[in-house]
Design goal:
By secondary structure, the chain is an alpha+beta fold. It contains six helices and eight strands; from the N terminus they run βββααααβββαββα. It is globular, with a radius of gyration of 18 Å.
């Protein structure tokens, strides 16, 4: 159940020169966090993704990507229903096998991750840092006694911590925007992850590690605005 602690508002989006931008109340037309991370990805990371596509075949790669995106969308919807519900009920999945899979994944995240959240302040929360960037985080609230930015992730297979640096950088970007807009001091990010085979993982970034990823985010911002704007 949501506690209306902050006046979150949804931002409109608009395609400008082939890029999706968030339209902010101060007149900004801002790139998303994910757009900035994609534009500033290392050549090694870009090559790795392209090599995977070549290895499995472009058609198969697109099929895998589309299936994962659909699964993630359904899982996020179940979790949103849970957070918004007064009864903590996600709803019923019916006879759809794909919906059932996403429902079970969401339940794993609830039982092993969200159970440790004392408060939910908002779900699918749109945030922006005035005149610089914007984005949407899955969840904001209190996790194990700490104010936190939280995201739900689906995965085809379990991840190693060293594979998901961009997720941690993303957390610090959302925290920075929330702190700027609402005067908070969020310095914790939590990623709740479940694989399609229902293996749950949880990754927390805080303390010195949070500061490290925040510095990486600032460098990426500088690179993006130097090269692309």
């Amino acid at each position: 159940m949501i506690i209306d602690k902050y006046p979150y508002q949804e931002l409109k989006k608009k395609n400008i020169d082939g890029s999706r931008r968030y339209l902010t109340p101060d007149g900004g037309k801002l790139p998303s966090v994910t757009t900035i991370l994609s534009a500033t990805a290392s050549e090694e990371k870009k090559a790795s993704l392209d090599n995977w596509r070549k290895r499995v075949g472009y058609a198969k790669a697109q099929e895998i990507t589309t299936e994962a995106a659909g699964r993630g969308t359904r899982m996020h919807k179940w979790l949103e229903n849970y957070v918004l519900s007064d009864t903590g009920d996600m709803g019923q999945y019916g006879s759809n096998p794909y919906s059932k899979q996403s429902h079970i994944m969401a339940q794993e995240i609830i039982d092993k991750g969200l159970v440790n959240c004392e408060e939910f302040w908002g779900t699918e929360v749109t945030l922006y840092f005035p005149q610089i960037y914007a984005g949407t985080t899955d969840l904001v609230g209190v996790h194990d006694g700490d104010e936190a930015i939280m995201d739900h992730k689906q995965t085809n297979r379990p991840k190693k911590r060293e594979w998901i640096d961009d997720y941690f950088i993303q957390m610090t970007a959302y925290a920075d925007a929330h702190n700027e807009l609402y005067g908070t001091n969020i310095k914790k990010g939590v990623i709740f992850m479940c694989s399609k085979d229902f293996e749950y993982q949880e990754f927390i970034v805080e303390g010195n590690e949070f500061d490290k990823y925040h510095q990486q985010w600032l460098k990426k911002l500088e690179e993006y605005y130097t090269k692309y704007i």
